[in-house]
Amino acid sequence: MTISIAHLGPPGTYSEQAAVFYANWLGKSVGVEAMLCPYPSISQSLHAVAKGQTQLAVVPVENSIEGSVTMTLDTVWQLDALQIQLALVLPIVHNLISCAIGLENIQTVYSHPQALAQCQGWLERFLPQVQIIANNSTTEALERLEQEPTTATIASSRAAQLYNLPILASAINDYPGNCTRFWVVSHNEANAGFEKSQSVASHTSLAFSVPANVPGALLKPLQIFAQLGINLSRIESRPTKRSLGEYLFFIDVEADASETQMKSALAELSSHTEILRILGTYSVLPVSAV
Questions:
Q1: CATH number corresponding to 203-283
Q2: Domain 95-169, CATH class in plain words
Q3: pTM of the predicted model, to two decimals?
Q4: Burial environment of residue 56 by CB neighbours within 10 A (0 to 12, 13 to 18, 19 or more)
Q5: Residue among 38, 17, 58 at smallest CA distance from 185
Q6: What is the pLDDT of residue 28?
Q7: I need a surface site. Which of 39, 103, 203, 272 has the fewest CB within 10 A?
Q8: CB burial class (10 A; 0-12, 13-18, 19+) of residue 73?
Q9: Contact 12, 162 (CB under 8 A)
């Protein structure tokens, strides 16, 4: 059996690295082979699954320094055919890749906005005068570095190896504990049960909107979990894109949706929300386990 996995490309991105880890885990755990399919954006990776072009997508959802990846949240909400199957936690170590002789020769630095933000302090300290340009991925600008020796890219050491480019500075992210959580997403009608069969589900992700912007509109849904002793590990608001001041709420719950208490919580929650979606019940896999 071979499955196709969409991810943010080109090759060498952290999304591809997470997808490679996941593909290796699938091979070792259940004997499933994987074909990686790079896409130009996170949104296109998720749309590929919704359209049936690939069976799975591996997409970043949250970074320990910069917080949520809003494109992932917004697209998952829009595409109600998607379901989270698994979460992966990947340590992130950024490097400055360049053909420049030294830091003093660099005039422009390219990378994904998340990577640039995660290295903001280092850039301000060592390259305060350079032009910073955001790309769709950490690897988009790598192919131009040999022709432009005054440019640099922030990317992984694996990316430098893949493109045979020198690393000018290593581990430049501002905080050593930098890591990113990825979701493995499938079509909700697909038979993707082999992921869940390997471990007990520990988290459930929900998204909902409230009927009106009135006092207590969010408090009532949150009280349901508190009264039942269910812990929330994350809550995030996003604009509905319908009207200023209207929000969607994304919640991660430390419980399996099939548990009795969670079933009670979800039943009560539906009466306090306008739209309620269960995005998935899944386990969390550190990449060190691969």
A1: 3.30.70.260
A2: alpha beta
A3: 0.90
A4: buried
A5: 58
A6: 87
A7: 103
A8: buried
A9: yes
